[in-house]
Structures are given as C-alpha cells and as structure tokens.
Amino acid sequence: MKAVGVAGIGLFCPAGIGADGATGGRPGEVPGFRARAYVKERKNLKLMSRAVKLGVSGIAVALSEAEGWEEVPPERRGMFVGSTPIGGEMADLVPALDASMDADGVLDLGLFAREGYPLIHPLWLVKGLSNNVLGFASASYDFQGVNANYCDGDASGGHALVEGWAAVAEGRADLVVCGAADSWVGLESLLGGVKAGEAAAFFVLCLADGHQRWVIEPGEGEPLADERRELGYLGCSETAVGLARALLRGELPGFSAAGQHLRFV
C-alpha cells in the first residue's frame, strides 16, 4: 500500500473550532458555531439537524486547508462519514407532546394521533437521516467517487477513517474526506444522565508526497486520550475528534478500527 498524508483537518468541538478546540473544553455546544459561515447552500440549512450542520461545516474547513483539491477529478474524490441517525431537533417535538397530554399530565396516544402528530413538521425525520452529511457535502463539492456512510454506534467514526485511508492507500481514490459528526446535547436523559457534547472532525487524505504535515501508516502508535472526560459523550465523533485534537496539539496518536491498527507519523 502507498503512504497516505493528511492535507487538511476540520475540527468543531465544545473546546472550540480548529486549533482553538485542541485543548481543554467542557461538555455542551460548540462555542460560537454559526452554520451559515460554512455551509455553501444556505437554503439547505432548513433541511439539516445540528449534527448535519456540524458535519458539513467540518468538511468545508478541512477542504479549505487542502490546497489544490479541486484539481482532482470528481470521480476520484471519495467520502466516508460516520453518523448517528437521531432525527431532527428534539425541541421541535415539544408542541406535539404538549398537545398530547391528558388532564393528569400523562401522554395520551389517542390525543397524540389526533392533536400532536399534525404539529410535527413533515421534514423532522428527514433532517436527521444518517447519510445527510455525506449527501449534502458530496453534492456541494462534487464528490463522485467511492463513498460510504457508517451507522455503527460509537465505532462509526473510526470505521470511516480507516476506510478512507484504505481507499487512498489502495488507489481507489486520489483524495478522500473522512470523519464523523454527532450531537447529543439535550439528550442526556437517553444516556442515563451522562454529560454530553457535540462535535465534528474531518480529514482530507491523499497520497503522501512530502508536503503534508502528517502521514498515516499501519502501526500501533500512542493510544488516544479519553476525550469524554473533558468534552462529554460525543457519540460516533469521539475517535475523529480525539485524533484531530491530538494532531493539532503536536502529538502523533494511533488508533484501531475495523480490524486495522493505524498511526500518525
């Protein structure tokens, strides 16, 4: 296999955006995040959940750091994304639930069918489809090559990274965007009260030619730090965020996913 280099990183996490997000942090939202600053087609924002907005924004930043990526033929551009199919924003369901409570404050399914359900926007579920990051980003940047979306729980981001690396190393793509995005803020009750955050981290990979700051190769490397202790539960984005933060701090971590052991050098 050929050596693969990292040409760009797009990081959004509760510690900050880009290099500002490399250290420290706390559970919660990405500070100062405004999707309008990163999403090319602003009309698409109405069709995106918070996680999708973060993912498309992360890809935009990663590509902005990869000089000359537009010169790669569209059919040789690949994309691999890890995601969690949660749906739209939970707050959008509150009016429907309020209208479905009986006099004792108990959810009445009959009321929900008659009064609550019509209050749910027909695009609520569509906004959070698992392949939305892949779909919106590949259309915006004309990626027509190999691609895949992974919904394997917390392992999804790691799978996307390994498959993206393999696509370049095996010659199936000349340039690949890979990573993950997720948002669990406001859903802590589903996690048993565990503190949660939101994040996206994406990498632009291409054949290493000496111009990239980092190279990925098979090997164990240094283990990743546990980002959950600082940033809360990040779902499927945790591995990608940990790698991005480590690299931006000047560390050279290793990671394992999908039966592969890789390291940055």
What attributes characterize this protein structure?
alpha+beta, Peroxisomal Thiolase, Chain A, domain 1, 21% strand, 7 helices, 2 domains, nine-stranded mixed sheet, 265 residues
Structure write-up:
The chain is an alpha+beta fold and 265 residues long. It folds into two domains: 4-88 and 126-264, Thiolase/Chalcone synthase (Peroxisomal Thiolase, Chain A, domain 1), CATH 3.40.47; 90-124, no CATH class. The protein has seven helices and nine strands; from the N terminus they run ββαβαααβαβββααββ. Strands 1, 2, 3, 4, 5, 6, 7, 8 and 9 form a nine-stranded mixed sheet that branches. The chain is globular, with a radius of gyration of 19 Å. The mean pLDDT is 92.
